[in-house]
What does this fold into?
Amino acid sequence: MKKIELAFFLCLLSVSFSYAGGILTNANQSAQYVRMLSRNASTQADAVYFNPAGLVNLENGFHFSLNNQSIFQSRTIENNFPLLNQSTYEGGLTVPVFPSAFAVYKKDKLALSFGFGVNGGGGTAEYKTGLPSFEIPFSTLPTVISGFGIPTSNYSADLFFKGSSVFLGFQLGVSYEISDVVSGSVGLRYIDAVNNYDGHIHNILINPQHPQINPNGSFMPATDFFTAIGQPGYAVLTADKDVDVKQTGKGLIPILGLNIKPGEKLNIGMRYEFRTKLEMTNETKVDGTGQFPDDAKFRNDIPAILAAGVDYQLFDNMKVSASYSNYFDKDANWDGKEENVDKNLYELAFGMEYQISETTTISAGYMYTKTGVGRGFQSDISFSLTGNSVGMGLMFKVNERTDLDLGVLYTAYASNYKESNYSGIPYKESYDKTNLVFSIGLTYHLFK
It folds into this structure.
């Protein structure tokens, strides 16, 4: 019965949100990314994030880019634990505002840059009726009580959980043209991470048929029943509990970049982001479980990233692109959860742009994301799946200085499952989700 507390509240430590990129990293940092998906060799304003060494290819002057994405994610969990009142649990995330911004000053061989974005998290999940891991412990109560010789057939509980996670990134960089072919960059990104969790377990009810305590066999509070039959331990475990916890952490990410431009048609970009040691600290307002001591710390590192891309101007009005990104999840410290990571997650993307007029360019892209986690990593509140993404959109040249980007991105994930047991009862749990993203971006060029 001790698991009644742990199954619900320890899940709060593993909540994560990702939309495109690694398990803890959001790669969807611009409207151009949403409409094309392959940006690792970009030489436009969003190269601040994707290919900082390529910024030297911009025209002299200032370049500013503002982007926003609206993200809609659906999640479905199927659980066949035989004692549950339901087998399907559906939830979702809605993120209407997911901003990013870039600024570049380019002068001859030198480019100075600033970037801002939601580099991890960025969503709020709310489960008004809980999830299997929350409910399974309570679903066994009728069996436990019937084992005392008191017939009991049903249960109910008020389970609520809301969690949000936002990792804001602020980046500075310097890019320099070493030769006509090669340029390099160095940069530093500051991460300000905040998680907020609000949850409760209230009104655990059971229907024991006890001649003195509950002769009608109607629902009654479990804690009252266990108190009446002299089981104070069970009474404490089934009493109402609340949690209100904020977790904060800060980290620095060194970034190195290299850009190679052998000719006018071909550009190659590379970027390496170092692993970030991220230590989160509890700021606990309410903790009815004793599982979240105030000021307690745990590791939630951001993995290193190696990214490379190629852009090729196939025709005067058509460009094709390919990108590869590897997230070194196995080397991160996630307080032991990384032990269930078998291989590093990677992404492989292809995109194209076609200029249909002097003012309008259309684009499309495809990306394959291969997760490397083992089944032991998966849980109903935090799971990583292999996915296939398609993006499309357009760029409209408003005038000589202003570009407008519009894009839409859809990701379908391959479902996965794990097999487990609770109190000796085996069960299977499967996971699935989809992502839908709409983006808009505005870029302004102040040439000099």
